[in-house]
Amino acid sequence: MQLFYYDIPSAQSTKLELEKQDSRHLTKVLRKKSGDTFHVTDGKGNLFDATLGLVTSNRCEIDLAFAKAEPPPSPSLHIAIAPTKMNDRMEWFLEKATEIGVSTISPIICQRSERKKINHDRFQRIITSALQQSAQLWMPELKDQQSFDQFVKNHDAQQKFMAHCMDGTEGYLGSQLEMGSDTIIMIGPEGDFTPDEWKMAITMGFESVNLGNTRLRTETAGVYTATIFQGLQLLDLK
Amino acid sequence: MQLFYYDIPSAQSTKLELEKQDSRHLTKVLRKKSGDTFHVTDGKGNLFDATLGLVTSNRCEIDLAFAKAEPPPSPSLHIAIAPTKMNDRMEWFLEKATEIGVSTISPIICQRSERKKINHDRFQRIITSALQQSAQLWMPELKDQQSFDQFVKNHDAQQKFMAHCMDGTEGYLGSQLEMGSDTIIMIGPEGDFTPDEWKMAITMGFESVNLGNTRLRTETAGVYTATIFQGLQLLDLK
Q1: Which residues from A are below 8 Å from B238, CB to CB?
Q2: What region holds the Ribosomal RNA small subunit methyltransferase E methyltransferase domain (chains A, B) (predicted)?
Q3: Structural domains of chain A, ranges and CATH numbers in brackets
């Protein structure tokens, strides 16, 4: 059954009113009619059975019945990634990381970043769309963009990695991951992190890792990381 | 150093002539000049040190010196995938699968495929571009499109999987993979494989597997599969 994301006050909510934009999208673009049923999530783990109620030209009502709650994804994966020069590459990463499953995404502006500014609203819409399409109940949190320095100084987790291709002496991400631990992984821009950034990250407790034997683009590295992290938790080999 | 792919007669070749299109691309678009050095691969494991020689308006010569040979990727991964309705999604898969590493890609037309025809030359150009960008020496082989039936009846490997989301009783791909074995994995179209296709695959020795807990788009499933396959070989945990 089709799943929609809406901002819902609480798991006890039984009614939701959609204003102009969301209402028109649901009733005009997607052609839902009064009486149609679908699923709704609040992006915070709750699923609702939903029935479209009264529809007027600019708004509509949805009747909600709580169906189930899912605990947050654990362990959590936080990917900090330098936005790519070409926006569509970053948008692919956002869509795919959401499909595969990631808890938090932080756009970080690095010394070699060619793109210094992101469109947060557009990024959020892509994540929301991917959440709905992949039928998940926890929306990845999209942080505001921040500088590499700010990010490194202000974020901690049980394990912290920096993926890069500086000299090849690092361990492979998959070998270094501790199963069951909340994890931060940083991925650099097209020109990689600088030696200064590398030093700062090491000082702040990040471990330097590689992502295998081939040279991956930034957005590929992001999707690769999400896949290996989720895949290894499922295998639970360690 | 920049890597270019050209069709080269043998590892002993010491000279290569580029005709109009390739020559103009190298000298006009990429602005290489006589005397410039770069790397060249034949896509069959051989790397050459290359120097641009004589350049005329419509052709150029490249001097080649054999540098090294790499054995073919082993174990091999052959992904058979239904082309997506939207071409850009399939093209994204081709680029990412090439970056991460895959030996063979077979576009398969399934019962529920909305796209019945691919542009083989365009697909090949995307793979070539990704090969060069990711600095690899083995070009993934792009097979001609074929029907699901043809594919299933005519291809074998040490292990063969069908990834789908039919009922959820299958094992996880990562758990079922035997390390070190040449592998075929089939990925279905947007509407998944049909029960008839599933039965035929099982009869022909394919094992049904899932790709984790979330619902992945076709192209995401392809990239996910390549990542898990390569990642587990690197871990060599089993």
Answers
A1: 237
A2: 74-230
A3: 3-69 (2.40.240.20), 77-235 (3.40.1280.10)
